[in-house]
Amino acid sequence: AAAQIVHVAIVEGDSAGYDIRSFNVDGTDRHIEVKTTGGPASNAFFISPNEIEFSSKHPDSYVLMRLYGYSDANNNANFYQKRGAISDSFNLTPTEYRARLLPTS
Q: What's the predicted TM-score (pTM) here?
């Protein structure tokens, strides 16, 4: 079963909405998104609209693995996980807009 685990972010790119396709003990899909920061668990982190949408469409299989307090020197971190739609566990604040030139009349 370990051979079936796919690091989707490398194989398919970042557009999938999650980083790792794995499986639960019962064989059902498990979609894992990993977010890592050096600060405390309370620090904000960036998450894409695509990742939020995927988690909303697949709440039964989506897991956010949040690594915090990451130390490059020691190569370790603390972590927690949240299952389900991202919007159920986090306050989401938009941080960017896509701008396109308006057509001229």
A: 0.83
